[in-house]
Amino acid sequence: MQAETQLTQMQSPTVKPLSRNKIRWLRFKRNPLTLVGAGILLIIMVLSIIAPIVTPYDPAEVNMGERLLPPGASHWFGTDEVGRDILTRILYGARLSLGMGISVVVIAGLIGTVIGAAAGYLGKMTGQITMRIMDIMLAFPPLVLAMALTASLGPSLFNAMLAIVIVKVPVYVRLARSETIVVREQLYVKAAETFGLSKAWIIARHIVPNVITPIIIQVTIDLGEAILLIATLGFLGLGAQPPAPEWGAMINTGWEYFIDHWWYPTFPGLAIFLATLSFNLLGDGLRDLLDPKATK
Amino acid sequence: MTMFEMKDLVKQFDDVTACDHVTFHIKKGETYGLVGESGSGKSTIAGMIIGLLEPTSGSIRMNGESLWQNGNYKRNKDGAIQIVFQDPQSSLDPRMTVRQIITEPLRVLPKAVRRERSDDRYLANLLKRVGLNEGHLDRHPHEFSGGQRQRIAIARAVITDPQFIILDEPTSALDVSVQAQILNLLNSLQQERQLTYLFISHDMSVIRYMCDRVGVLYHGKMVEEDETDSLFKAPRHEYTRKLLSSLPQLKSEEDQYV
Amino acid sequence: MLLEINDLSVSFSSIHGTFHVLDQVSMHIGPGEIIGVVGESGSGKSVTALTILRLLQDNASIDSGKILFQNQSLLDLTEKEVQTLRGKKIGMVFQEPMTALNPTMKIGRQLANVIRKHRGVSKKEAAELAVRALEDVKIKDPEKVAQKYPFQLSGGMRQRVVIALAMSAPPQLLIADEPTTALDVTVQSEILKLMKELSQKKGTSIMFITHDLAVVSDFCDRVYVMYQGKIVESGQTGEVLSQPQHPYTRALIESLPEGKKKDEPLKVLEGEPFNLAERPAGCVFFERCPLRAERCRSTLPVVSKGKHHRVACWEADHDHV
Known about the structure:
By secondary structure, chain A is mostly helical. Helix content of chain A is 72%, strand content 0%. By secondary structure, chain C is of the alpha/beta class. In chain C, a hairpin with a 2-residue loop joins β1 and β2. In chain C, α3 crosses α4. The longest helix of chain C is centred in the middle third of the chain and has 18 residues, at 185-202. Chain C is globular, with a radius of gyration of 21 Å. Chain C starts with a strand and ends in a 10-residue tail after the last strand. The mean pLDDT of chain C is 91. The interface between B and C is large, with 39 and 42 residues.
């Protein structure tokens, strides 16, 4: 109760709020782990973009004279079985892993939001049927479903992405629908209905913008998982195919050499670990940041 | 001249009859008051007139034309009927700017009208008319006080040049000093634009000030209807009398509570 | 004096800045007295109540002042001492009754638990006293209601139950923050009547917080009018409401539509209240006051009119009303 009264006090007409972005920045700064996550990601992204400048090597060029060299001054992370510089391959691979990871969850998020908003706003039947289908999909463990899908579609990076999109969509549909059910009862939606506007307009202009925040948070949190899934499919030989410098595929090949040449699978593994961890830190931070219920 | 005619209006929700054979009419240019306590059915009636709730039976006619035909609401493509809700906190989309909010009802109007009224100068005049200014156009609802938000809602309601506005407890969520500003604004807009109002409230003193005629609702039924003055001076129904006697009065002398 | 508040200042700090929500507020309540605290949103009326109850959030700080309850300094008590005080000596009723009720426990048991805590009686006795307490708040069929859950009752009934809970000790002071605002008028008048009766019967003082002047007029012996964290006027209810001295009190009364005809516009208060993060040095009402003069900008007087009537306005000096 006291919380309620004090909130009204704080929101009294006399309180001129700071701009939303200013508040977000102030809160963002307070959480150092979010900054660490964001910083690591930024460094990885920048390095992968400027990789041709950073490293003198080519990720695909075979150099049999330098095969399986241990980490040293000229090859910081060592070389692989055909003499390619592992650091270079990790940096180029970051383009694949991060790019794929981001596009996969963003696409799944968009599709899920639209389906979920429609299912939540339109009639009961549409919503019920959609949700039952999503429930069936959610009943499978994500990795198993993704594996089954890629195996049947044929192993390739594109099919791996497609499979992960399909696996992730139900998560966003469910989230978007539950938010929509709250939003559709808001007076501003009722008001829009009284103007005689189409349902598509109401979904696009009122429902989606007001349910998107929790989805953005979920997308950020899922980025780590998506990268892990892509790498896992690559490792199992279902995703990116050699010689593509994809982290999971690199571990797959490197694994055979692990006993005598520990660096080969270790560094790609560390890259996956670091990227996943950073996305999780960032996601947690964003959740605190964008959560409308957090007022402090 | 009669603008609205509600005849034998019934709304059934599962096992509750929210509106029970209500019949009344609203004359052009008047303010008709619907007063009642929670669960009396006043907002249900508003919902049926504005097209949010389909009547179970009975008819609503506006200028002779039936608003509901075979489960379809007929009259929302010309912006002739608008509504102002009680809570301006939730009746404005928090993600939209004031400009987007007040021009949204125009979308159902012909393109020429739309263009004319989305014009910066037109909007600036409209905002000024409701007591805001053009600097407010690109701000978001959370930057305004409750009274200012209600002004935005009123601007949104009049932009389509409606004949009729439902005012559903428009000042119940506001401070008294702000309530006075909003009531004055509503009255002057009514005079300027020859508006007809349906004023819904639980507050007898506001109803008395605003309305020409009043209908008293109790458990979904209209128990009494009269000119405001006679209703307040000589209430006939027992429930109306109870409502009036429950109303706390601002007394000048120190009376003992009875 | 039962309760005395002296020069109480409270501020909230948040990411938006520091808001001075109470500025040197002083008030007192005698035994058996019913006082009203009236104001609009942001006036600080609820914060005053929460400060007395020691229920302020962590981001609030008490910058100055004292609260004496039966000559005991409330602000110096330990959390444990405050807990025994709350409920037993100071009861509370808020706007939304559900916040005070446990939704998963039957009414009778909730009441019995509280009664046992306050009076240390046996379980059986407490159950009987609980039914008696429901009878006290004019609930018909108290035995039956005692067996119900809160959600099975109407808003008015729930508020009666909350009053029964709050009065079970019975307390010396009852703090009621907008207890009837969410209720229908017919129910409101019954609840007010009930509270008045209980206050007389048990000798409990009431601090009644509301935005509604008409309710104060009916219900309270004395009234404090607050604006933006400051008491601008106080005195006997009849005197303050019939001869308001402060321009804000006057504006508040004049803005009521009561007894006015549609063709005469209501008098309105121009402008908006100031930002609580930027308190003015002088009068809190300066920006919106029709009578403001230069000296109001920097200084704020307290003028006595009559025995108990106090006004924070230079204008009240002149006898022009």
